[in-house]
Amino acid sequence: MAVSDKFQRGPLVPNFLYSPSSSVSNRLIGLENPFLMANSSSSFVAAEPAKLGMVGVKNGVVIPAPNEPARKIKMFSPAFYAACTAGGMLSCGLTHMAVTPLDLVKCNMQIDPVKYKSVSSGFGILLKEQGVRGFFRGWVPTLLGYSGQGACKFGFYEFFKKYYSDIAGAENAVKYKTLIYLAGSASAEVIADVVLCPFEAVKVRVQTQPGFARGLSDGLPKFVKAEGALGLYKGLVPLWGRQIPYTMMKFASFETIVEMMYKYAIPVPKDQCSKTTQLGVSFAGGYVAGVFCAVVSHPADNLVSFLNNAKGATVGDAVKNLGVWGLFTRGLPLRIVMIGTLTGAQWGIYDAFKVFVGLPTTGGAAPPAPAKA
């Protein structure tokens, strides 16, 4: 039986968008070597496929090695975008719900700085007045709102990143990759905030007005009765003002930081790093990106909290009440800690989910420029 000199399969994704997660798993090793044995039926199998990371051929059929996933998601297929959407939903929903106590104190410090003067005193006041359960007031709208937002944010980011790269072409996609990251993340966040806005409005009202409602089930009808259905979107423009710069910084800085970490801080290329190392890079890059995000988006965050707390309030009222300095600084240290941790955890969970379903982690080595014809 004749066996071809070499079996090889190319990368599944354009090299200017992703680096392959494993150089071994992306190609097959030649079969014309001493490790192959012929059996009585003239079929061939690898002697030590698990050890060598190889595959065998039996009756003309490629047999995956035991350590290779039997089924992989094709890049940029509907299944790929569905996986990214599910990963984004998990990463944003779970992390935002986990930091509900910090978010609760931050919102109250923004709304009533006289009563909530510091982080420690804020926690003390909430514990005294509402008990331990009070720290998680508003967790349901937080979980649902940010799950929907995360699903749209990550899913549409992957879509728009590919879409804008295709429009630009391979060479320009490499040359202007940062602009593509910025445009893709901004486009995704516009959609994601439409999903988040009603939940954010109810969450802020529940968290900053004790006695208004216990949570989403009774808070949403009361809010609509008082403000009307359109009142749920009163804070949409300030939310865009907060979230779009935040998300642009979150994705573009993350991609850049991860690329620099693999280039300068990691002694081996990404495709030679273990999955644990790659996920550690994702968390570290996400945390640093989160610090930048908090600073850029904080003034709009103060506006959102003020507008959703005060009925009939305007942006002018918020600036007059908070002052320009207060708009940029009130609650900022706590938000830096919260957003840094939050963003790092989100990228860690998102990339862990991608690895779990057989996809490469986000970001990596600087993409090579395509060869000119």
UniProtKB/TrEMBL annotation:
* Membrane topology of this protein: Multi-pass membrane protein
Q: What lineage is this protein's organism placed in?
A: Eukaryota, Viridiplantae, Streptophyta, Embryophyta, Tracheophyta
Q: Which UniProt keywords apply?
A: Membrane, Mitochondrion, Mitochondrion inner membrane, Repeat, Transit peptide, Transmembrane, Transmembrane helix, Transport
Annotated Gene Ontology cellular components are:
mitochondrial inner membrane
Name the SUPFAM superfamilies on file. Answer: Mitochondrial carrier (SSF103506)
Classification via PANTHER family: SOLUTE CARRIER FAMILY 25 (MITOCHONDRIAL CARRIER PHOSPHATE CARRIER), MEMBER 3, LIKE-RELATED-RELATED (PTHR45671), SOLUTE CARRIER FAMILY 25 MEMBER 3 (PTHR45671:SF10)
- Solcar repeat spans: 79-163, 176-260, 277-356
The region annotated as signal peptide is: none
What family is reported? Answer: Belongs to the mitochondrial carrier (TC 2.A.29) family.
Q: Where does this protein reside within or beyond the cell?
A: Mitochondrion inner membrane
The highest taxon in the source lineage is Eukaryota
A GO BP entry: mitochondrial phosphate ion transmembrane transport
Question: Under which name does UniProt file this protein?
Answer: OLC1v1013755C1
* Gene Ontology MF term list: mRNA binding; phosphate transmembrane transporter activity
Function statement = Transport of phosphate groups from the cytosol to the mitochondrial matrix. Mediates salt stress tolerance through an ATP-dependent pathway and via modulation of the gibberellin metabolism.
Q: Which Pfam families match?
A: Mito_carr (PF00153)
